[in-house]
Amino acid sequence: MRRDPYAILAARIVREMQDSPEKINMWGKTWKGTGCMGLKIVMLGAPGAGKGTQAVRMAQEMGVPHISTGDIFRKNLREGTDLGKQVQEYLNSGGLVPDSLTCDIVADRLQESDCANGYILDGFPRSVPQAEMLTEFLAKHGGKIDVAVNVDVPDEVIVDRLSARRSNPETGEVYNLKFNPPPPEIADKLIQRDDDKPETVQERLRTYHETTEPIIDYYRTLGVLVDVPGADAGPDEIYRRIMDVLPK
Ligand code: AMP
């Protein structure tokens, strides 16, 4: 009797993962794994807490997409799309894009095929209604958020960090003049995001405390929250802390 080729492949993946959860050898290639594959992760923390930097690295190491609503909005703004025009005013003022618009965009993104094996959400959800909509959306598709990582950094440190943040307008890559300086050859073309200017930073922090911080308790109640101190160490150490607390 012929065996179903997908069953053979699935059995092989399970075997590979049991033998070596760090690396999977398949189709002549070594796929990086972290032992945390398939997780749906939400990154929480104030703007500038470093959750974006960590989310990018986690996504690379786990081989899953990094989904940043801020990046999606900024890309549309740069490209002058209809969505870009709709969100411009909110981004420039440091306020939040309306929940329904944001949730529609995320729901579309999460239905793309690359999200089937987990993802890292960065900057979403940002309000309790968004978190509730996400829970409902995932439940409809038979899933749930596995872990919410709260990168905890006090406001004084945030203000200090954001005022030194610069980004490359061509690639979107982010640097920090104090903690992660850019290579000298690109230093000239870096810009400060409008929303990293001091008055907007204060507004973003106010919005964070009022609207976004209550999500921490939302995920704590669901039993999936992990807190990671994010002010007293560099990005590598924070990354190690996150990896240590992710469910294996
Ligand atoms: P970020 O890069 O995550 O700091 O996002 C930049 C800006 O995009 C925010 O200040 C908001 O104006 C908007 N934004 C990003 N994510 C969301 C979200 N989940 N809900 C509403 N607005 C958002």
Task: Write structural notes for this entry.
The protein has 248 residues and is α/β, with parallel strands linked by helices. Helix content is 48%, strand content 15%. It has ten helices and nine strands. Strands 4-5-3-6-9 form a five-stranded parallel β-sheet, with helices on both faces. Helix 5 runs parallel beside helix 6 and helix 7 runs antiparallel to helix 8 (198-212). The chain is globular. The model is unreliable at 20-35 (pLDDT under 50). Adenosine monophosphate (AMP) binds next to helix 3 and helix 4.
Classify the beta-strand content into a percent band. 5-15%
Morphology: globular
Let me know the number of strands: 9
* Widest beta sheet: strand line-up: 4-5-3-6-9
Which runs of at least 5 residues are low in confidence (pLDDT < 50)? 20-35
Task: Characterize the biggest β-sheet.
Answer: 5 strands, parallel
- The sequence of SSEs as H and E is HEEEHEHHHEHEHEEHHEH
Give Rg in angstroms.
Answer: 19 Å
Q: How far from one another are the termini?
A: 36 Å
List all distinct small molecules, including ions and cofactors, that are bound in this structure: adenosine monophosphate
Output the structural class.
alpha/beta
Helix content: 40-55%
Q: Whole-number average pLDDT?
A: 87
Helical segment tally? 10
List keywords for this structure.
alpha/beta; two-stranded antiparallel ribbon; binds adenosine monophosphate
Summarize the structure.
By secondary structure, this protein is an alpha/beta fold. Helix content is 48%, strand content 15%. The chain has 10 helices and 9 strands.
